[in-house]
Amino acid sequence: MNILASLFILLSSTAAIGEGAEVADIQPPAHPSPAVTASFALVTVGRIEKTDRKVRIRLEPKYEAGLLGLEGWSHVWVMYWFDRNDTPEKRSTLQVHPRGNPANPLTGVFATRSPVRPNLIALSLCRVVSVEQNLVEVEGIDAFDGTPVLDLKPFIPGPDTPQRAITTPVWAK
Amino acid sequence: MNILASLFILLSSTAAIGEGAEVADIQPPAHPSPAVTASFALVTVGRIEKTDRKVRIRLEPKYEAGLLGLEGWSHVWVMYWFDRNDTPEKRSTLQVHPRGNPANPLTGVFATRSPVRPNLIALSLCRVVSVEQNLVEVEGIDAFDGTPVLDLKPFIPGPDTPQRAITTPVWAK
Which chain A positions have a beta carbon within 8 Å of B19's beta carbon? Predict the structure, then answer.
């Protein structure tokens, strides 16, 4: 049996549990192919580790090889998961008052950096302080100790910098 | 039964299928709590739509409310899923020759923007051309038609711009 067939059975088995309606709340919407549905599983590649005034990303040892050459970059995007907000209610919130300030206009979550959104992926630009084995010390991340890390991507000046005029809403100025 | 209990059963039921070893290849690694493991399910909030020379993001209608106010931003980060690379082999690749060029040194995927990595999350900075109902026209994204979109986040100049000197490896210059 190949993996796609296995996953199809895995997903199909949800219905047999008898609590499928609850589980379905955080399943991806229906797609033409079970392969697409089945693929949206994230892995935790590491954790945020806060000690004193240092912030480090401790990668799972099995992912350490993925850091080769990171020390050549000054800045890295860190993607992590807002795990404390991982409830069906928070993942179905589509509008918020930005920065939790009721004086700011009600705004769609895709027009904010709200930690409450359908996919709880956080994005922070960090300076790379050091890379040693499976530990990356960074500056510029405001995440809780123990937060699951999903990905690191180097900051590349060209594609990561707007090439035309930047505008922002009044509340964000 | 609450949702976490349901998901725990869902994940536990994998073993009973008899093909658990294959499924386990793309399950998250073991965590102290089933709650953490169970939470890493992504939803598709929309799709990339390429027509002629336009690139649009077509949000699922149920997520349209999340776009309120996006037109006030000139640039947006688009996160999408490299669904064509969603195989256990590609998700376990940790080192590549950047840009597919064997002349570039073998580099950890976390030090590249390779579309082959443990979590297949892509990140592109796009200019917002227009926002109409559930359609966002953008410039600056190089994704296949039909690609699943995970999130939109506005570009905020302060936190999204390095505040100290930028360095990059030789291969990326």
Answer: 1, 5-6, 9
